[in-house]
Amino acid sequence: MTLKTSNLVLIIDFGSQYTQLIARRVRENGVYAIIKSNKLGYKEFLSLDPKGIVLSGGPDSVTSKKIHKVPDYILKSGIPILAICYGMQLISHYFKGKVSSSVKKEFGHASFSIKNHNILFNGINAKKKMNVWMSHSDKVDRLPNGFKVIGKTTNTKIAGMYNIKKKIFCLQFHPEVTHTDNGKKIINNFIYKICECKKSWTIKNIMSDIILDIRKQVSNKKVILALSGGVDSTVVASLLHKAIGNNLICIFIDNGLMRKDEVSEVKKNISSELGIKLIVVNASSIFLNKLKHIVNPEKKRKIIGETFIKIFEDQAKKLKNIEFLAQGTIYPDVIESSSVNAKSDLIKSHHNVGGLPKNMKLKLVEPIRQLFKDEVRKIGRALNIPSALIDRHPFPGPGLGVRIIGEVTSSNVEILKNVDYILIQELKNNSIYNKISQALAVFLPIKSVGVMGDKRHYSYVVSIRAVKTIDFMTASVCEIPYKILNKISSRIVNEVPGVSRVVYDITSKPPGTIEWE
């Protein structure tokens, strides 16, 4: 996008679970932010030309032998720096302050008192204590030369420091989390008062830039999009349609593992309401045959992914003059592969159309690659995509295949489709669906005794789950009121043949994951 080179805050990632949140907070304030690892090269750094730099927190200790360092050229650039948590400790270490590991750790809420008021705290009452969010064991014991203390907490005498001449501001607490009082104001002061950024990251500007970029890249050539029916692919389809009209062709592959009535909903939303060319391929029997006797979740994911690719490739070959393939890749997907914590093992082996054969010779178009989910949703609303689609909960790429524990059979799929339908319907009927980040049902390969109509029967168990989260990196259990849970359970057992018992999953992430597989 053209915005990225004109007004940018660079975030250097040191492995904090909140790094993505920093970027989102900066963007919410109207300035474009991009995340890079600390191994960022000098040439790329120069090409980015940032107005400000944020050093994220991280799990490491600067007192250990192996530490993630800040490149010298960043610290000598003269560009304003906001260093958070581990970032603050790195700054202290670099400028010859003293950092030590402490027995008294601070995790969670802390009371922060401002000692030296400065521009970072513009508009914040210096006499009033702030509730802040801490997550550290190491702490700065001695200031580097030229730095002053910003404030303290009960356990940390130097809970913030700054050097006006070097334009470096450091905070031991996390201003990016909602638990910190005035966090948004602190970030706002950094990007506008200190970095002198201009507000340019708006939905209107983002959309116009994306459409312009698509037209530049694609021109009058044809593009195919593997449509899933979810938020990301639908927004991509709408953006492409706006940019290139009928040169976009969407292919929707029904793998038989979608939600109930999903195919008809996709046809209605894409073809009827948005007027986009759509090819629907009924391949449910192919997928179910491939999944026979497969119980390992990773094998299921790979089979579903490979089968999808093969069918998609066959469909693409039937079309003429196709030069581009569009995908709904979003920014968290990009970050996961380049983060300081990125792992070589596959966390999500089936995402978008990953793994397409190179001999397809299609060039990639990824219009929302730089956007977070909430930004994608905002664009969807601006494009007048129905809110029922834009606000829907995430759904896994392999569909119900990974929400069925054990073997995937047509009968198990039918059971789970109906269970899922009742769960979502009741959440919507009771006006709590939009208060939940993700709700799902899971089919369990175990049976339980039930009694219906004075008869005992031996049927399956299903689990329902609901979580709330900001970034899906961590999640807490969403408390569904008991009366609603009771209604959901009663309907499932009475309306879905083959189910005798409903359980409620109350595991947070971590230690659990949002999906079961």
Task: Walk me through this protein's architecture.
With 517 residues, this protein is an alpha/beta fold. It folds into three domains: 193 residues, 3-Layer(aba) Sandwich (Rossmann fold); 179 residues, Rossmann fold; 106 residues, GMP Synthetase, Chain A, domain 3 (2-Layer Sandwich). 33% of the residues lie in helices and 25% in strands. It has 15 helices and 18 strands. The strands form three sheets. It has a nine-stranded mixed sheet with strand order 2-1-3-4-9-8-7-5-6, with helices on both faces. A five-stranded parallel sheet has the order 12-11-10-13-14, sandwiched between helices. Strands 15, 16, 17 and 18 form a four-stranded mixed sheet that branches. Strand 7 and strand 8 form a beta hairpin. Helix 6 packs across helix 7. The chain is globular and about 75 Å long. The two termini are 36 Å apart. About 3% of the residues have low confidence.
Residues in β-strands, percent: 15-25%
Query: Per CATH, what is the topology of the largest domain?
Result: Rossmann fold
Mean pLDDT: 88
CATH architectural group of the largest domain = 3-Layer(aba) Sandwich
Biggest sheet layout = 9 strands, mixed
Q: Quickly name the level 1 CATH class of the largest domain.
A: Alpha Beta
Separation of the first and last Cα atoms: 36 Å
The percent range for helix content is 25-40%
How many helical elements?
Answer: 15
Biggest sheet: strand arrangement? 2-1-3-4-9-8-7-5-6
Output the structural class: alpha/beta
Q: Which overall shape is indicated by the principal axes computed on the Cα atoms?
A: globular
The low-confidence parts are 342-355
Q: Give the total of domains.
A: 3
CATH-assigned homologous superfamily of the largest domain: Class I glutamine amidotransferase (GATase) domain
Overall number of strands: 18
Rg, Å, rounded: 25 Å
